Amino acid sequence: MSAHSAPTLLLRRVRPYGEGDPVDVLVRDGRIAAIGDDAGAHAEAGSADVTDGGEGVEILDFDGAVLLPGFVDLHTHLREPGREDTETIATGSAAAARGGYTAVFAMANTQPPQDNQTVTDSVFRIGREVGLCDVHPVGAVTVGLAGEQLTEMGQMASGEARVRVFSDDGMCVYDPLVMRRALEYSAGLGVLIAQHAEEPRLTRGAVAHEGPTAARLGLTGWPRSAEESIVARDAILARDAGARVHICHASTTGTVELLRWAKAQGISITAEVTPHHLLLDDSRLESYDGVYRVNPPLREAHDAAALREALVSGVIDCVATDHAPHAAQEKCCEFAAARPGMLGLETALPIVAALLVESGDMTWRDLARVMSTRPAEIAGLSDQGRPIAVGEPANLAVVDPDSPWTVVGEELSSLSANTPYEGMTFAARVVGTVYRGRLTTRDGEVLA
Ligand SMILES: NC(=O)N[C@@H](CC(=O)O)C(=O)O
Ligand SMILES: [Zn+2]
Ligand SMILES: [Zn+2]
């Protein structure tokens, strides 16, 4: 459905960035048409009858809820093509919309992988047909994510999907010469390489964070150095290639220090952190529940604290979910056999709000920076992460900061249920999502 066929929306009594008194926001033809008391007048003037849906004006009273720019996820696994039993572009888009997302970047570790234009353009088209959020396919850096032969990034970048982010996520571009060439090529193309930082020879057989807990539980450890040695290497390679590099799912105190150092050197490096690395730590391993298995692994409490501080200070640029759906049988098994990864799209906002806004460390405007504005900038999106202002594209998330809800995996829109937050209660909830001027969710219900 394109913008012109969407009904005009009047969002009553919303508070942009949670600031000031409630105002009305009029959305028409995909854009913000008016903000303030006169928005209602605009609506009346715009169409004779004020009715629900149809060609009239759809009125939605949000009773003082917080209005934010729609969220942008740089790191989502939609699993289509290949593992449509765990997620599809449609179910993943529905989960994104329920989470307040209006754009997601779909990682390349699909089957077949998104390592050529045929697959990236196909994912892009399906995402557009689903029409619940912008689906930007991420292109692989190397053929088959094998880390040896560079893909035709230029073809994927010039295809219909206009791929602008490339990553072998799930795998690391571990060979320094291949990474150097990829960075040099990306600099010429003006695209971004996002690295899953994992030195594979340091993580052979590893299933959990290498620390006292894994040692006591007899789980083979993933040392921090496996991530940090790649972060340090890639910062230097990016510097010398005159390229940008983005670090996926930063997880350790050391990575935060390396990012601080690299940014101080003027190196073009950005980084994301996931909600699970902000909230959880390896004490969760006590249960041996496979839902807590993830790459990179949950670290220690002081790592999570360092990641929260880094997000507040800007050393870490943004939140990304690393939404990683897995089938029940791939998680309900002994820990070392469980597939790594956890759901994230529908629980990111409440977690970041609980950890950083409710604590007073961040304002809602700061939250908009790390969940919308900054990821959109990093990916070079011109119509996402925009200010809430007249004329801007209507990609919006409406958040009720005090509407407690409890996470139930089976009730999530994702096709999978591998959430590590089962049974947890959060105060903040997305109560409405507007994507290119169209309401995609209202009170948690995904609208067609
Ligand atoms: N994070 C994970 O543990 N798994 C991700 C891949 C990845 O992000 O490394 C997946 O695709 O399942
Ligand atoms: Zn990864
Ligand atoms: Zn991932």
Automatic annotation (TrEMBL):
The GO terms describing molecular function are: allantoinase activity; dihydroorotase activity; zinc ion binding
Q: Among its keywords, does the record have Metal-binding?
A: yes
Some GO term, biological process aspect, for this entry: which one?
Answer: 'de novo' UMP biosynthetic process
One Pfam family from the record: DHOase
* An annotated GO cellular component: cytoplasm
Instruction: Report the top EC class in one word.
Output: hydrolase
- Write out the catalysed reaction: (S)-dihydroorotate + H2O = N-carbamoyl-L-aspartate + H(+)
Residue spans crossing the bilayer: none
Q: Where is the active site?
A: 322
Q: Where is the signal peptide?
A: none
Q: Which family does it belong to?
A: Belongs to the metallo-dependent hydrolases superfamily. DHOase family. Class I DHOase subfamily.
Xref: NCBIfam families: PRK09357.1-1, pyrC_multi
Report the protein name in the record: Dihydroorotase
Q: Which organism is it from?
A: Dietzia lutea
Q: Gene of origin?
A: pyrC
